[in-house]
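@channel sequence for tomorrow's demo:
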Amino acid sequence: MGKAFFLFGALCAGIAVLVSCGGGHARDTRLSVDKEGRTVVDRYGNLQVRGTDLCASDGTPVQLRGISSHGLQYYGKYANRDVIQWLRDDWNAQLWRAAMYLGEGGYLSNRVIRNRVNDSVAACIELGMYVIVDWHVLSDHDPSLHTEEAVEFFTDAARRWGDTPNVIYEICNEPNGSEVTWSGNIKPYAETVIAAIRAIDPDNLILVGTPTWSQDVDIAAEDPLDMGPNIMYSLHFYAGSHGKELRAKAEKALNAGLPLFVTEWGTTLNTGGGDIFPKESGEWLRWMQKRNISWANWSLNNKGEASSLLKYNADRDAKGRWPLSDLSPSGIFIRNVLRNEMK
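C-alpha cells (generated this afternoon):
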C-alpha cells in the first residue's frame, strides 16, 4: 500500500510540473480535434521541415504527440479503428506509430503483419491523425541487410499513401551494434530507400534512425543526408536510463542543424521494466516541448511490464474505451500528459 501511494504521489507531482511548465505553443495546437471539429491533419496538412522544426503546411512550427504500438506481431490487435479513435478522443493523441518488426516473428517471416500497418493507416486517415509507418529494425542490427525488402515495402507504401498528408515513413527504427556505423551502413541504406520513396512521393516526412539504438544523433549531424527536404532523424530514450548525457548529444545535433523526432521513448528503464520515472520523464518532456520535438510514447500493450500503457491482460479484446482502472502507472501518466493542454 505504501508503495502504491508513493507512486501515485510521484505521478501527480510529475503531471503538475508538466502542466505548469508552459511553452511556446498556444494550447489549441496540442488538440487532436479542436473546438470547431477540425482534426490535427485538417489543421496542419502536409508536414514540412524548416531548419530543425517540424512545421505545418503554412510554415507554423508544430509538435506532434502520440502513442506507439508494440510489435505488431505481438500486439497488433490494438492497431484498429476503435482503439486508435479512443486514443484520439480520450487521450488527445495526434499521432499513432505502427511498429512493424522485421525479425522476431515479424514482417520478414510473416508478411501478413503488413495488414496491421494497413489497418493503422486506414484508421488514421479516416480519423484525421498522423501515422508513422515504422520499419522496426532491432534484432536485425544493420538496416542494410534488408535494403531490397525495404525498397520493395516503402515503394508500395508510397504508391498507396504518398498522396495523403497523414503518412510518415520511418525507414529504420534502431540500428545497433558496434559494427553498424552511420557512414558505413545506415546512411547508404537511407540514401537508397529515400530515393525509392521520393521517386513516387516527393514530400511526405521521412524519419531516419541513428546509430546505437537511435541515440548517436550527434554522429549523424557530422555527416547528414543530402536527399532533399522533409527528412528528420530519430532520437530514442528511456527516462530511467537516459538523461543529461543523451540530451547533450541531442543539443549538439540540433545546434548543427539536424532536425530530430523522438519516435520512441519510455517512462521506464530501457529494459521496459522496473518502475516508472515521473521526474525524469518530466525533464525530457519539458526539453522536447521547449525545442519543438515531436514524440511517440512506447507502448500500447497489456503484457504487464512497466512501460506497458495497459495493465496485465487488460482489454484482451482490444476495444479501447479503457477505464482508468485498466491503465498502468505509465498509462495514467502519459494520458494525463497528452490531455493536460486541452481546454
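heads up for whoever presents: The chain has one domain: 2-339.
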